[in-house]
Amino acid sequence: MTGVTVVLADDHPVFRDGLVGLLERGGIDVLAAVEDGRAALDAIRTHRPQVAIVDLQLPDIDGETVIDIARREHLPTRILVLSARSDSAVVYRCIELGAAGYLPKLTAGDDICAAVAALARGESVVPAELQAGLASEIRLRRTDDRPVLTPRELDIIRLAADGHSNAEIGLRLHVSTATVKTHLQHVFEKLEVSDRSAAVAQALRRGLLA
Fold first, then answer.
1. Residue 192 located in a structural domain
2. pLDDT tens-digit profile of 22-45?
3. Count of domains in the chain?
4. How many Å apart are CA 132 and CA 130, to the nearest integer?
C-alpha cells in the first residue's frame, strides 16, 4: 500500500469508475470520486487529499477553475490534470495556474499511479511527449525583464549549470574560490534565489543560459 490519498473528478462515469479501480489496485486510497468541478472543490476542502486528479472538461466549474481556486485558497492538495487535451498552451496554462502535473488520458495505468505517488512526494510530473511543447510555450511567453548579469556572472552561472564546483569554476576562470562565491552571491540576489540549484533553474527559465 502506498498510503497516498486521492480525490478524483471526471464527468464520464465509465472512465471514472475504471480509474477508481485502477488506483485502488495500485494501493491508492480514493476518498471521493465526483463528476463536476464544484463537487471536486468540496471534496478537496473536506478530505484534504494529498492529490486530486482533475479532468479539464467538467460540468459546473471546469478543471482550470478548480486549479485556480485551490491555489488561491492555499489548499494543500496537489493537482494532477488528466485530460484528453494535450495542446501545449493548455498544458502551460494549467501549470501556471498551479497544477503539479499533467497527463494525457491515454496514459497507462501504472504510469498514472506512479505520477500520483510522485506528486504525493512533492514532485511534479509532465511526460516527455508534452515537455517540448511546454518549453516552447515558456519561451513564447518569456518577458524581457531579465536581470542584467555581468559577463563574469554569466560565465560562472553557466559553469555552475554544467555541474562544476566553485573550486573548478575558479580554476577555469583563473580566479579564487572566494571570488566565485562573491559573484554567485550577486547572481543569487539578482535572480532572487538562495542557492545554486534555484539560480540555475531561474537562469534557464529566464533565458540567460541560451
1. yes
2. 999 999 999 999 999 999 999 999
3. 2
4. 6
